[in-house]
Amino acid sequence: MEPINKTGVSEFFLKGFSGYPLLEHLLFPLCSGMYLVTLLGNTAIVVVSMLDTRLHTPMYFFLGNLSILDICYTSSFVPLMLAHLLSSRKTISFTACAIQMCLSLATGSTECLLLAIMAYDRYLAICQPLRYPVLMNHRLCLLLAGTAWALCLLKSVTETIIAMRLPFCSHHIVRHFTCEILAVLKLACGDTSISEVFLLVGSILLLPVPLALICFSYALILASILRVPSAAGRRKAFSTCSAHLAVVLLFYGTVIFMYMKPKSKEAHISDEVFTVLYAIVTPMLNPIIYSLRNKEVKDAARRVWDSRQACR
């Protein structure tokens, strides 16, 4: 994917935190550590769910997809951001900016749909336990995950091409630490209405709609759990769903806080710091939440570790 550059722009300057050198030196070790934890934690989830046959279930298939998404999302901007935190040259080429924009849009959008799919999977597992193996078979898992990835990639490629084909007549300073589409659109001197319509429709389809489906699924799950006569059964069902609910609240809470604020509000450096932290903290916490709250994951990790030690 390489949009045609008719604007004469060869590169953009990512302003980020260039006016706050002390903050840059503070953010570098903090973000580096969180990025390392994100890579290790999510990679561990993917490896364990692949190597342990007991985790070859729809729930862990979708969890593995979520971990891959988090790795791709953070890797689309964190390495360059870390390099810019230590460098005075904070530029990015036109093509690299378009690729970064597309990847972040695609992975963020896919996560919105994937969380809704995971809620539907939990609904079937708890509310339709006898029919669950038939309803949520391997073919349907592949279809749901593949459709989410493909649709969001197509949407993001379209949004990126439309945005990057606009003329950029003013300065080329992006007031952000990454090529975030709204920040780049502020530099365009052409008609941005088409881009804004696409972004509005996408925001409606990927924020309120999946969130409503998630809330509806968990309302049905809660009603079903409360009818379980066994206290142990209720605890197990609550434990299974609480990790997913924590991830949903963390993801949607931060996204809605950042992107549903009034547009008239003046941007502050605190907003950018919060954006950096939520963009790295959320993917870092996902594997921690799932592994610490899930006995199956911890047992599987222990079995994989023991088998590797035995092979030595």
UniProtKB/TrEMBL annotation:
G-protein coupled receptors family 1 profile domain ranges (all copies): 41-290
Protein family per UniProt: Belongs to the G-protein coupled receptor 1 family.
Sequence intervals crossing the membrane: 26-48, 60-86, 92-120, 140-158, 197-225, 237-260, 272-292
Signal sequence residues: none
Gene Ontology MF term list: G protein-coupled receptor activity; olfactory receptor activity
GO cellular component: plasma membrane
Key words of the record: Cell membrane, G-protein coupled receptor, Membrane, Olfaction, Receptor, Sensory transduction, Transducer, Transmembrane, Transmembrane helix
Membrane topology type: Multi-pass membrane protein
CDD domains from the UniProt entry: 7tmA_OR13-like
Cell compartments where the protein resides: Cell membrane
Superkingdom classification of source: Eukaryota
Record-given protein name: Olfactory receptor
